[in-house]
Amino acid sequence: MAGTGVGAEEAPRTDGKDTKEVILDAAERLFAERSYASVSLRELTAAAGVNLAAVNYHFGSKDALLLAVFRRGAVTLNKERARLLREAEARAGDQPPPVREIVEALVGPAIRASLTGTALSLYNQFYTLARAGGPPELREMLEKDVGHLQRFVTALTRALPHLPAEEVYWRLHLSLGVQHGSSNDLGRLATLSGGLCQVTDRDALVRRVVDYVTAGLTAPFDP
Amino acid sequence: MAGTGVGAEEAPRTDGKDTKEVILDAAERLFAERSYASVSLRELTAAAGVNLAAVNYHFGSKDALLLAVFRRGAVTLNKERARLLREAEARAGDQPPPVREIVEALVGPAIRASLTGTALSLYNQFYTLARAGGPPELREMLEKDVGHLQRFVTALTRALPHLPAEEVYWRLHLSLGVQHGSSNDLGRLATLSGGLCQVTDRDALVRRVVDYVTAGLTAPFDP
DNA sequence: GTCTATAGAGAGATAGAC
DNA sequence: GTCTATCTCTCTATAGAC
Fold first, then answer.
1. What is the pLDDT of residues A93-151, one digit of tens each?
2. Interface test with B, best of A145, A148, A170 (most B CBs within 10 A)
3. pLDDT tens, position by position, for chain B (223 residues)?
4. Do A180 and B182 touch (CB under 8 A)?
5. A179 CA → D11 C1’, Å
């Protein structure tokens, strides 16, 4: 892992991951487990099995590494969301897809990923922490980057034509809150329920969240 | 503000707040705006207008200060929640209160506070950040401290007798996620909606969240 | 591309005068 | 109870050998 100095530039490692990826994986995990500010590059590079100087060599700075982690996760996540939404729309033909299927495309990928060993597995927690504790550059990016949500606004507006635009935006906002919140505080939930509520089944959790969100989105509206 | 050395122990200041409170206020604000780890004691004491050494004198350590901020906010918040729930229960007599009123008691105080200048105004954000970025001691405390939620479990179980216990816990968990999420990412919501969605009215926001959460809690259940 | 060594800044905590 | 001065530690970032 610690490199040999052998091989050409960008040569793949024996384990199939180059140093950049190894660093990104470790950063995603550690930033998700604790906050960005509380993880040092020393700790991070040790966990990744690379040299301390490698982060600055490959990314330029700790801040730039954070942005890279974020970008990688966001791209993967939003591709998957878009794919699921496209499939739902194809199934529905000319009609808008059922709200339930739109919701599944919106919240499913992040929740499912948070319970697997994929690259996305920690992206949800990472997002929460980075948004709050990260550098201003990232916070601004998160505030401005809404392109990936536009297609969901469109889909929900078509599926819920009786709602004013403002209401659609608000309900979408709250729904994203449910998605983020669903994987936080699971320890507290286990304590509160005396161990009754444990996440054993990925799809069961997604179903719960989708049920809840669908109910919130389709709630009656009286101004 | 910077103290005069005059006066007896615990003497109130001219502005009515002693040093301890001034520090707690500044800490709550700064920890909420950025993360715990990224705010230095130097910055914090400067913002509070007290001496650098004051934090260690009054609280013992930076970690202990964080716990004190958390405790103060949690006590205030949960007293208010409990009061509202008690009132709703009194109004309902022998019957369980309407779900809507239980929800109002659960999520109202934190959201309302997040838009005022009270001591609680930043507690919501503070909670999110501290949970993730704070010291392990705090994280453990958050996981174990569920006493304040028990009365809400009881109330919801009575109001939603057709739901299995497990389902009640899960829906309560997701509802708390909505509450936390409602005040995050408001900048993104404004961007996404082209400025259409702004929080101008405290009560209007609470009403939106209560509507949404009530729908989620009362959604039909099919196992 | 990887590594060691270190510069330089900034952190939390404390001793001791007032 | 407040303040200055400072100790000690750790951090990010980089220069330069390999």
1. 999 999 999 999 999 999 998 877 565 557 777 888 777 777 888 888 999 999 999 99
2. A170
3. 444 444 444 445 556 789 999 999 999 999 988 889 999 999 999 999 999 999 999 999 999 999 999 999 999 999 999 999 999 999 999 999 999 999 999 999 999 988 775 655 577 778 887 777 788 889 889 999 999 999 999 999 999 999 999 999 999 999 999 999 998 899 999 999 999 999 988 899 999 999 999 999 999 998 7
4. no
5. 35
Range of the domain at A185: 76-217
CA neighbor of B192 nearest in space, from A4, A46, A169, A202: A169
Whole-number distance in Å between B131 CA and D15 C1' = 39
Report d(CA B178, CA B210) in Å as an integer. Answer: 10
Domain assignment present for residue A213? The answer is yes
Total domains, chain B? 1
pLDDT in tens, B12-62: 555 678 999 999 999 999 998 888 999 999 999 999 999 999 999 999 999
Residues 122-151 in B contacting A (C-alpha not used; CB under 8 Å): 125, 128-129, 131-133, 142-144, 146, 149-150
Is A138 among the domain residues? yes
Residue B62 lies in a domain: no
- The domain that holds B189 is classified in CATH as 1.10.357.10
Nearest-CA distance B120 → chain A (Å): 18
